[in-house]
Design goal:
Layout (H helix, E strand, L loop, with lengths): L1 H14 L6 H7 L1 H4 L4 E7 L6 H20 L3 E2 L7 E2 L1 E7 L4 H13 L4 E4 L3 H17 L6 E4 L16 E3 L4 H12 L7 E7 L2 H17 L4 E8 L8 H10 L3 E4 L4 H13 L4 E4 L7 H5 L7 E5 L8 H13 L10 H17 L4 H8 L3 E4 L2 E6 L4 E3 L2 E8 L14 E9 L1 H4 L11
Parallel strand pairs: 1-4, 1-5, 5-6, 6-7, 8-9, 8-10, 10-11, 11-12
Antiparallel strand pairs: 2-3, 12-16, 13-14, 14-15, 16-17
Keywords: Signal
InterPro entries: BCAA_transport, Leu-bd, Peripla_BP_I
Protein name: Branched-chain amino acid ABC transporter substrate-binding protein
Length: about 425
């Protein structure tokens, strides 16, 4: 335990600032403090029904930027400004595509050349199309797009772009990981598929049907429906149908409030089957389920706090010291690796030029706290290990950490190596 605490302190010292740029100043000196920052635009829902997801992303990216800055910032040649800190500029999309496009225009006009977004594949597709057209029309102000959560497979397949890099496993990769567990779950003979009615939710259900037919053709699909995104306030009718179907398992890609309200309604309806989820490990879902979710809610992720690696646990403890409120407990390794890849690529390019950084990022290979990943140049899909966890009470075997102070955490039941999570690509990329 003493070793774990020392490792946590190491990460904390790298990540924490006592005040704006204070630790950064101590380590890097006044010349770096005064350097012109490299501004990164975060375009997310910072108000409205999914504001909690946007704020959670901001905390992750802020912490990642702090870590880069605490070690001296992005080290560029003197002609490029020398060592420069990263600075995140927030733009509120309000959960609307038009607002996101307006935010993109504002960011470009503000001189930002790196855009980050992830929550909503529909928004991602709109931004990607706009960035493609902008970069073609205005090569002097080209923009790089880093995606940490929009997992519609098309974004790195049919719609792949030189300007877009995805750091999350896409929906087909996540579903394949879940299917490794469903394949061995002999208690499941029927499944209910439910998702959000847009490109991502549709892709999840489509892939669930396809992979069930291959991996578990004996499982009957007894429900298959989509619901509006972010507009359903009462999931009781859906929960009633799930219970009445007799399904032993629900498969869903729901996220944010749409997931929390769904699992809460299922608990209140008395549903006792399993939930196979993409995002059931955070943002209120464990607390909403309570004891009813123990042993029954599974989630696939790029990383979980209870991954049995000392460096990983220390990393999580450092994040909780940086953001101690239970409601702020939402840390994602992929967002940290994304920032590491960006800093690495800028340093390798020796420039912040969009094309040069993109070419360097095609070769990015990063590691942090016992986890690692690399960028596949063919389609700009990040390749990394995945894990599947099952919800258990804190303190039970394999569950040292709970989620959001709920008393429930996720025990890792399956680890999938990057080579096994990798999926073929349909990308035919045009390069400048």
């Amino acid at each position: 335990m003493n070793k774990l605490r020392r490792q946590a302190l190491k990460y904390l010292q790298l990540a924490l600032w006592a005040g704006p740029l204070s630790a950064f100043d101590a380590m890097a000196g006044n010349s770096v403090k005064e350097a012109r920052p490299i501004r990164l635009a975060l375009i997310e829902s910072l108000s409205g029904p999914f504001a909690n997801t946007g704020e959670a992303v901001f905390r992750n990216l802020l912490w990642a930027a702090e870590r880069v800055n605490a070690r001296g910032g992005v080290r560029l040649p003197p002609a490029q400004g020398g060592a420069r800190p990263l600075a995140i500029v927030r733009y509120d999309s309000k959960g609307q595509n038009e607002e996101a496009l307006s935010a993109l225009r504002s960011a470009i006009d503000d001189g930002v050349r790196v855009v980050m977004q992830g929550n909503s594949s529909a928004t991602a597709a709109a931004l990607l199309d706009a960035i493609e057209k902008h970069n073609e029309r205005d090569p002097e102000r080209r923009v790089l797009y880093l995606n940490y959560s929009a997992v519609d497979p098309a974004l790195t397949n049919e719609k792949c772009s030189f300007w877009h890099f995805r750091f999350d496993a896409h929906a087909d990769m996540r579903m394949a990981a879940l299917m490794q567990v469903i394949r061995d779950d002999k208690a499941v003979h029927s499944a209910y598929l439910i998702g959000q009615d847009y490109s991502f939710g549709q892709a999840v259900l489509r892939e669930a049907r396809r992979q069930l037919a291959v991996q578990r053709p004996d499982i009957r699909i007894v429900g298959d429906e989509l619901h509006p995104v972010g507009r359903v306030k009462d999931f009781a009718p859906y929960a009633a149908k799930i219970r009445q179907s007799g399904a032993q398992a629900v498969i869903t890609g729901n996220w944010g409030n749409d997931l929390m309200l769904l699992v809460k309604a299922a608990r209140e309806a008395g549903y006792e089957g399993r939930f196979y989820t993409f995002y059931g490990n955070a943002l209120g879902a464990p607390a909403a389920l309570g004891d009813a979710g123990v042993g029954k809610v599974l989630a696939v992720a790029d990383w979980l706090p209870n991954v049995p690696v000392a460096d990983s646990r220390a990393f999580y403890q450092a994040f909780r010291q940086r953001f101690p409120r239970n409601e702020d407990d939402y840390v994602h390794m992929r967002m940290q690796l994304m920032m590491e890849a960006l800093a690495q690529s800028m340093e390798r390019a020796g420039s912040t030029d969009t094309v040069a950084v993109a070419r360097a990022m095609e070769q990015a290979s990063v590691q942090l706290a016992g986890r690692s990943g690399w960028m596949r140049a063919a389609d700009h899909q990040f390749q990394q290990p995945l894990v599947v966890g099952v919800m258990e009470r804190k303190g039970s075997e394999g569950v040292a950490f709970d989620v959001e102070g709920s008393g429930y955490g996720f025990r890792v039941v399956r680890e999938i190596a990057a080579r096994d999570a990798e999926q073929p690509s349909l990308c035919h990329m045009r390069r400048p």
